[in-house]
Amino acid sequence: MVWTNSKDSALRERAQAVIPMGMYGHQSVMLLPDDYPQFFDRAEGAYLWDVDGNRYLDFMCGYGPNLFGYGHAGIDQAYFDRARRGDTMTGPGEAMVELAEALTAQVTHADWAMFCKNGTDATTMALMIARNHTKKSTVVLAKGAYHGAAPWCTPLKNGVTKADRANQIFYEYNDVESLEAAVREAGGDLAAIFASPIKHDTFVDQELPDPAYARRARELCDEHGALLIVDDVRAGFRLARDCSWALVGVKPDLSSWGKAIANGHPISALLGSDAARMAAATIYATGSYWFSAAPMAASLATLKLIAGTDYLERTIALGERLRAGLDEAAARHGFGLRQTGPAQLPLIMFDDDDTSAKGYLWNNALLKRGVYFHPWHNMFICAAMTESDIDFALTAADDAFKVVKASGPLEPVAKLQFLHQMVDGA
Ligand code: PMP
User: Fold this and answer.
1) How far, in Å, CA of 315 to CA of 240, rounded?
2) What confidence tens digit (pLDDT) does each residue in 376-413 have?
3) Whose CA is nearest to atom 5 of ligand 1?
4) Cβ pair 186, 169 in contact under 8 A
5) Helices (H), 258-378
6) Which residues line ligand 1 (CB under 6 A)?
7) CATH number of 74-308, picked from 3.30.70.260, 2.40.50.140, 3.90.580.10, 3.40.640.10
8) Which of 3, 73, 76, 378 has the most CB within a 10 Å radius?
9) Domain residue spans in the chain?
10) What is the pTM of this model?
11) Which residues sit opposite 43 in a β-bridge?
């Protein structure tokens, strides 16, 4: 089929009139390489079809929620069965208790669970609970880490006041000295240390957590009576069948979850230890859709697959197959690639590509060959992918390297310069 985007273009034009900038937030394709479709029609398993009918092997997985495949039959059955009997009601269903039981059984540090809709709800509750628990204000966070789009954490400063960002001190991820310096600066006012499970910031190489850094964060919280928060919204259940910092032997007091916990159905969660239970019970937190029963039923079905299948080992093996194949192809074509982070959360960037020009051309060429990659955000492997899907991506990547090689000198990507100006100048 010949690649076209006439329907997408027409929708974008209509959107310009009725949606600010035509689209907003992380799913806007404004900053992606040319031709990335904005609007989609359908998704099944590991594949996605845009409104023009172009099919893509989707390595973004909805920016994380798709863990077992789009439209997973068992999970969706649980969702629709529950929805037919009642979803958003005047109170929660039985599934709320069952889900809290399942999550606290699955995640070692957790003694209780609270449910909400988006990752931002969970991280914001974590912040409030830490402040309520300690009766202190200052939070120490890693520079550049994403924790959501509320005024206290949104990356662009438009619409945000100094007061919204008060009582925050930043450290460098994995750098014990800078963490200690931030905690010293907090003095007697430390409420929490916020940590991403891995460094999965955009535009920079990913980093696994140094166990010494994770352990020091735990010790510092204990010394100061502060809470340790791990934001597992993006990586949760993709690195471990437990909180991701179980891999480095560190238990947080609070962990925030979202995305993969219900395979795309809208629900997020905050999990906590007994130490934080009373503080959690005495903040006011709620939302019109937070207690809807159907996403909870979907999450329960997802957790059964997390506990009872080899999805984790398979996504790791598929990620490793992709990584090895790309390294081989890149070397054959004379390119250096930086593939960072866990294999199942790949981030792929070119060496000698400060202006992202090679990366953008390569991603565009992949898109045209039916593979949806992202040039500067970590991607996701889902358990519905197969080895032959990975090989399909590798064949497309091989062709895409040829496109970059044949291109000659490339212009810097202008839209990214605009973004960096907005962030730096904000
Ligand atoms: N924390 C992390 C680590 C995330 O990746 C995200 C979303 N990308 C969030 C918090 C916010 O989640 P949501 O977009 O569902 O509010």
Assistant:
1) 11
2) 999 999 999 999 999 999 999 999 999 999 998 899 99
3) 234
4) yes
5) 277-281, 293-308, 311-332, 357-368
6) 63, 118-120, 123, 146-148, 196, 231, 233-234, 258
7) 3.40.640.10
8) 378
9) 6-60+310-425, 74-308
10) 0.97
11) 48
